[in-house]
Design a protein that fits this description.
With 509 residues, this protein is an alpha/beta fold. The protein has 21 helices and 15 strands. It folds into three domains: 186 residues, NAD(P)-binding Rossmann-like Domain (Rossmann fold, 3-Layer(aba) Sandwich); 169 residues, N-(1-d-carboxylethyl)-l-norvaline Dehydrogenase, domain 2; 112 residues, Transcription Regulator spoIIAA, CATH 3.30.750. The chain is elongated, with a radius of gyration of 26 Å.
Length: 509
């Protein structure tokens, strides 16, 4: 199997819904003659008409040349029967997400198409190995998982099952690149790359909501402040809670009920109640209003301190020192700096404002013997833009003065403090640590490479960084320690450090 054989080859796309029509459009724009088929009578022709309308709109806005639009449309032919596609060199199916239906289709195609025709499935969750089982030529079946909307989203997961011939997977990889996509190789395991690694983005938020540690609005603000384009609550509302819950349930069941992927009672109740998000008018938020702005929190200026010391080494401590220097400048003095104290944060007289290491403020207060202790979330964007939402929590034993002053100092340092319950790992640090941990396990199990995971998460779900890019800015030891702290708090299978990450943390630096 060679790339040249697939580039420009006659192509059959089965399924004329949003995904199938998008795949047909991209293939036709790349020069393929495309036959579009749908089992529903007239659906393929309707999809072509919709594409014509889409192209007219793009031409009218000056985003597409009229001749190129017409040439692309002329390459897409709706067909009423699969028998009309016997000359196809490549098939991509985008039908209903059902194992039996897809297997029946591929067996039907084997009787119609040449033995060297590549069969690709756009499945997002079904085992490619299972789909190939029973085929006469199972080695030619490969996953070609696009993301919606197909013309705009760059990522393609090229998924190999146990039967898939490496040459077939490589040919599809090269073809995706020729189409202007960014392909990544993946092994056929539950969720592939994106749907697997992304689970903690939703799961940690749902766990925080179950504990009433913070509101959806606060969690969303804190994760947007960490660089995510959308917070998890508004994203689940956009996806649809029924869809998001179903994917989680599928990954959970496919992993033999591994507690790491366990669905949430919070989301189950929302689905049962019909609170599906934007499409039902209500999810975590009501629509069309949506999340709305955070309430304005007024923080008094920090009280005059006798001594302010910035503790720790590295980028976050450097940022704190610069911010504290600016905050104290009107008083004519600045903070001291201690780099080897073993923690990062601010000491204000006898009180401590500490970067979370996964332990609660209460646990840190008990360890240090300092009741006036607060923890703040990990700033993931440095330098932190002014007004970045940042979660913090105060130890139960803290006095009323420090309960007020902890937030005041964070505000003076340029953040928009968001008080949450004293929960381990807070919001951003907890979420990103679990994303990195999940990605580490995916690499350990051969699902993808580190580079593939980074590309997949940035391009498939628009993360501000890939998990291994976050790891490079943080450290394996600190992330493992944070996940261990979560495990110490909750005691279960859910929070277990990936052996890959543990080995990296133990390696000589």
């Amino acid at each position: 199997m060679t790339t040249n054989k697939l580039e420009g080859a006659p192509m059959l796309v089965i399924g004329a819904g949003i995904m199938g029509a998008g795949i047909a459009q991209v293939a036709a724009q790349a020069g393929h003659p495309v036959m579009l088929f749908d089992a529903r009578e007239g659906a393929a022709a309707q999809a072509c008409s919709k594409l014509a309308g889409t192209f007219d709109g793009l031409v009218g806005k000056g985003r597409l040349d009229a001749a190129a639009a017409q040439a692309t449309l002329s390459r897409i032919t709706p067909i009423a029967a699969l028998e009309a596609a016997q000359g196809a060199g490549l098939v991509v199916e985008a039908i209903v997400e059902d194992l039996a239906a897809k297997r029946a289709l591929f067996r039907q195609l084997e009787a119609l198409l040449a033995a060297d025709c590549v069969l690709a499935t756009n499945t997002s969750s079904i085992s490619v190995t299972a789909l190939a089982n029973g085929l006469a030529h199972p080695g030619r079946l490969v996953g070609m998982h696009f993301f919606n909307p197909v013309p705009l989203m760059k990522l393609v997961e090229v998924v190999s099952g146990l039967h898939t011939e490496p040459a077939v997977a490589q040919a599809i990889f090269d073809l995706g690149r020729a189409w202007g996509k960014v392909p990544v190789h993946a092994r056929s395991t539950p969720g592939f790359i994106v749907n697997r690694i992304a689970r903690p983005y939703y799961a940690e938020t749902l766990a925080l909501l179950l504990e009433q540690a913070a509101t959806p609005q606060v969690i969303d603000a804190c994760l947007r402040g960490a660089g995510f384009r959308m917070g998890p609550c508004e994203l689940m509302d956009l996806i649809g809670h029924d869809t998001n819950f179903a994917v989680t349930q599928s990954v959970y069941d496919a992993n033999f009920q591994d507690k790491r992927y366990q669905p949430s009672l919070v989301q189950r109740e929302m689905v049962d109640g019909g609170l599906l998000g934007r499409k039902s008018g209500r999810g975590f938020y009501r629509y069309p209003a949506g999340a709305g702005a955070l309430p304005v929190a007024v923080h008094e200026a920090p009280a005059t301190a006798r001594e302010v010391v910035v503790h720790g080494d590295g980028a976050i401590a450097d940022h704190l020192e610069q911010a504290a220097t600016r905050a104290l400048a009107p008083q004519g003095w600045g903070p001291a700096r201690v780099r080897d104290s073993g923690w990062t944060g601010l000491a204000v007289d006898e009180a401590r404002l500490m970067l979370t290491d996964g332990r609660t403020a209460g646990a840190l207060a008990a360890t240090s013997g300092r009741a006036d202790t607060a923890v703040f979330d990990r700033p993931l964007l440095l330098p932190a833009p002014p007004g970045t939402a940042l979660a913090y929590a105060v130890a139960d034993a803290a006095g009323p003065g420090w309960r007020t002053q902890a937030g005041a100092w964070l505000a003076a340092l340029g953040f928009k403090p968001q008080r949450v319950e004293d929960t381990p790992g807070l919001v951003a640090a907890r979420t990103v640590a679990m994303l990195v941990n999940e990605a580490a396990d995916a690499v350990l199990q051969g699902v993808c490479t580190t580079a593939g995971a980074d590309d997949a998460m940035k391009l498939g779900v628009n993360y501000p960084a890939g998990p291994f890019e976050w790891l490079a800015r943080w450290s394996a030891g600190e992330i493992a320690a944070l996940v261990d702290a979560l495990d110490a708090q909750y005691r279960g299978e859910r929070y277990r450090v990936s052996p890959w990450l543990r080995r990296l943390a133990a390696a000589p630096q």
